[in-house]
Amino acid sequence: MKRRRKTYAGIVGRHHPLVPEEEPSESTTIPLASPILPTPAADGFLGVEGDDIRSATTSMMGHNMDEIVRIKRPVYSQHQFESIYTEEIEEAALREHFIDTVYIPPRPARTCIDLTCQYLPIIVTLHHYRWREYFPHDLLSGLSTGVMRIPQSMAYALLALVTPVHGLYTALVASLVYCVLGTSPHLVVTCQGVVSLLVGQVAKEYLERIHNVRLHNLTHTTGVNGTSADAAIKEQLLGVVLMISLLVGIFQLIFSVMRLGMLTNYLSDPLVNGFTTATAIEIILSQISALLGCEVRIPEDTPPVGVMENFKLIYFAIVSLPRANTYTLIISLVAMVSMAGLKRLNRFVKRRWKATVPTELIVVLMATLISGLTGFQQLGVEMVGRIPTGLPPAESPPPVSMDSILLRDILIIAIVSFVITVSLAKKFSLKYDNDIDANQEFLAYGAANILGSFTGCFVSTSSMTCSNLHESIGGRTQVANLIASGLVLITLLFLGTLFESTPTCILSAIIVVNLRSVLWQLKDLPALWRTSRIDASLWLVAFFAVIFTDANTGVMIGIGFSLITVIFRFQWPYCCVLGRIEHTDIYKNIALTPNAKEIDGIKMFRCEGPLFFSSADHFQSCLYSMTVNPRKLILQKRRYERRLRSLKRFLSIVPNGRRQNAAAVAAAAETGAESDATISVAPSTENHFAPMPETSDVHHVIIDMSCCSFIDSAGWATFNRIVGDFQEAGIAVYLCNCRFAIRAMLSNAGISRIDKRAIFLTNHDAVCAALSDMSRLNERDWLIYDSHARQRSEDLNHRRRHFVSRRPSDASETGQSRFLLSSEDDSSSD
């Protein structure tokens, strides 16, 4: 009887978009190695078809029929596709793309002019500068930011534990160097609160280590008329700060030469935002002594030692309120309220007249004028003191004995200061479509810090408030920073003495008010939690690490946790099982798409991550648990075969205990001696009977490699072991959507056990090939079964005729059957 081929409706059939139309009476299958069909240009058989699409009956009749396209093409394995369309994997391409796992873009040949313009961006800026269009905006921005950075730089110098004039030096030198070497037209480089606090903490901790003493409240007594710290400590503190600036610049210069601008990618925005927010709170707490006008001291034996310093400071600040200087406290509160009101007014003025009110400068000038007229110094209010006029002298930093802790902290300052800058520069570059070269930025900041260390400057970085002001006013280029640097230079040359009677609590009030924009980052946490809980956890870890310890330790904990999250995402990537949406070639995650259904006998698995030494075990465990575990099938098969071998030892046992071979049993059956030839099994063999091993309904496992970017040697070893397990269990493994890197390694002989013919272009190609392969296997099994049955029937008839011709006519049918059965057992055992 002619046997009909088995069809798979919806997968390989008449109305499927990937299978050519056939006559309604015939069912269609696509073989695994299908012949190459004619191209669409030859007879229009393949390709995109849209003429009779309206007559097709599918489950998408609710869609606009003009948007439905039927595509006809053969099932392509990767090997067939490459042979037709000449996709080759050459050794030169592998060397250029580093096997597509690390891509280094080619660098074109550059002339001396190109190199000069690259390392001196100011040349390009001035060459393309539009004076009539750009200069009015740059002039207004330069005047506004210059007026703002004068009091801010003086205030942030207190955080670095140096006198305010060193803040003016930093604002002048760093800004000039960045104007020449920087690549961002919107950054304003000057003193910054977080970095200044880090510099001050590192310098203070270093002096405490080498002197083995506890230094208290250096921020409050750094001024000229401070009395609690002697001149020797001040001189050593300044030397340490300048040496920190020099080493930070050297580290940044080395990073630029080694092209390590990519290091900033490991400090994500949530980490930086959480760190800066917590550091802003720590900066505010560090100004409590200056705002209260009295020293707030934490006893050394206050438990727990070394941690919870910020909470201790809050407690002892509350305890110290009765000792606060009333005039200092009133001046501080009035200054903060005045600046907050002026900044609110400033937003209205900026929207109305595109100008800005110099809030900090107005408050500083008013406080300085009132202080000079009323004599605040006689009331116990601390003043800034003498500010030397003129340019800073060029001197080399004094030598400082280094230790590992100091070098570690300096490296942290170098990276953190640069990351803060790059994160702000990227925000402006995305808004204005500017290119930022991270390695050139390293060069600019390294040169600014190295040159600044010889001119009395501490570590500089971009100022968020000044940069936002420069961008909001409409500043176009770094020419605005040149104008602002001119204002700072005029202040150093002629106006420095005007600020000698400025109360230091005014500078502390400026620090506190300007940290408002940093503290507002707290409102972004709920949205970040809804977007990504891992990023929100990173934000919280960095925040609380700084709050409960200090800035240096907190940033190390944050970086460590950031690396852990990266390892966690790569080591345990998401894995899923894919199913097909009916009447389509679309395959989706069955856990997320209810309409996606699995295909009988096929498991499609996808791991959304690379397969390397860290994720190999996770890949294997997820594959076995989500599809079928071949090792269980192999163990059951081996256990069954072992019991069968044990059972054969006790086969053909006669009642008297003598072992009989198959020939004796056949002879006994031929003579008709039924009682002597009865085959029996000893009772001891009952335990050797084993049930048939369990078989799996899965005949093909398809692994979707679309999300796998690369596989290393350990991953290939695991992958080969997986393929070997499935093959031993009788399950075929197909691959689909393989990327260039994986196919490049597959082309190397001896790496993979996957046959090239088992690698397909898409998921649907692999499914069609798997079903076609299974159909052929079923037909082959039926053909083998039919041939064996036909052969057995012919042998039976032949033996029956032979038996009847040689035996008497009274031979029983039972004897014939026993003879035939024993002969079959004998042949099967042989």
TrEMBL record:
Biased composition (Polar residues): 811-820
Membrane association type: Multi-pass membrane protein
One GO-annotated biological process of the protein: transmembrane transport
Main location: membrane
Record keywords: Membrane, Transmembrane, Transmembrane helix
Bilayer-spanning residue ranges: 156-178, 237-258, 270-293, 313-340, 361-385, 405-425, 479-495, 540-568
Subcellular location: Membrane
Record flagged with keyword Transmembrane: yes
Residue ranges constituting the STAS domain according to the UniProt record: 592-770
Region annotation (Disordered) ranges: 800-830
Transmembrane recorded as keyword: yes
Cited NCBIfam families: sulP (TIGR00815)
PANTHER family noted in UniProt: SULFATE TRANSPORTER
Protein name in the entry: STAS domain-containing protein
